[in-house]
Amino acid sequence: MEKYLFKDDINSMELINCKEIAHSIEEETIEKIKKLKQEGVTPTLAIVKIGDDEGNISYQKSITKKCKSMGIGYRLYEISNDEKNASDKYLSLIDSLNGDESIHGIMVLIPKGSAADAITRINPIKDVDNITGKGHMYPCTAEAVIAILDYINVNLEGKDVAIMGKSNKVGKPVAEMMMDRDATVTVCHAKTADTPGKTRQADILVVAIGVPKFVTQEYVKEGAIVIDVGINLDENGRLCGDVNLDSIKEKAGACTPAVNGVGAVTTAMLMKSIYLCAYKQTMGEIIFHAA
Questions:
Q1: What is the mean pLDDT of the chain?
Q2: 165 in helix, strand or coil?
């Protein structure tokens, strides 16, 4: 556990080494991929990118780079929103990928606010990030939160947990997974009364609200573990999380960093998910879990 925690300042909280956790997950997954390849199967992801959203382009590049480094195959399909009959084209493409046995996972990247028809069309067995809500695993970000706690040896049984944010990608699935492990979970959202009063009771605080440096020490119990899922830009254009690390560092016990934080583990869990989908489709049923 020691290699997954470190201190920048001897008098402050420990930082969770998410980069090292991600590396451990990736190394384990690479070994499993090698064994699957010996059976003649190369896990392969189809990435369908619709439009030219800069964030999606950056994410697509990071995914393909990671696939290459881990021996995962991928195919990139790009469709312009300006194309004639674009909607029909991407729905037809998804149908084709659903029926292609050489494709084990499908990921659709669409601009925010766009129609999500292509997402709901994905065959759940190939839904590597459970964006349909019908997949065989939890969303990768939610899986990453649980994996981080597992790697630093946190037993959730009997723990009081507060989750800020109730999204389908993080808040709700994390709450479900934690309750499955017998934690007592409070989910806070925009309509919650006295959120700080509730989060200060939590042994573990998960923050996924998308507001830069929102969470300060008034939200944190002494010695609590804080998982900061947020990725934002501060007023100076620098990457930051939803948590103000300077504010909580003398109160929290441990926290994930904004840079190379939960996002690094999420990508590792995506690679693991691609492997799991490939294994399930070619070798039979398996149990899906975070770590």
A1: 92
A2: coil
Q: Match domain 40-124 to its CATH number in 3.40.1080.10, 3.90.550.10, 3.40.50.10860, 3.40.50.1000.
A: 3.40.50.10860
Q: What is the pLDDT of residues 187-230, one digit of tens each?
A: 999 999 999 999 999 999 999 999 999 999 999 999 999 999 99
Any known ligand binding at 167? yes
Cα radius of gyration rounded to whole Å, the chain: 19
Q: Quick one: tokens of 101?
A: 């046995």
Closest CA to 203 of 177, 228, 222, 175: 222
> Could you give the CA distance from residue 148 to residue 254 in angstroms, rounded to a whole number?
12
Q: Where are the CATH 3.40.50.10860 domain residues in the chain?
A: 40-124
CA distances from 134 to 95, 103, 232 (A): 17, 18, 29
What is the rounded CA–CA span in Å between residue 81 and residue 192? 38
Residue of 289, 280, 288, 277 lying closest to 44 (CA atoms): 277
User: Is 165 assigned to a binding site?
Assistant: yes
In the sheet with 254-255, reading across from the earlier edge strand, the strands are 5-6, 14-16, 254-255, 225-228, 204-207, 160-164, 184-188
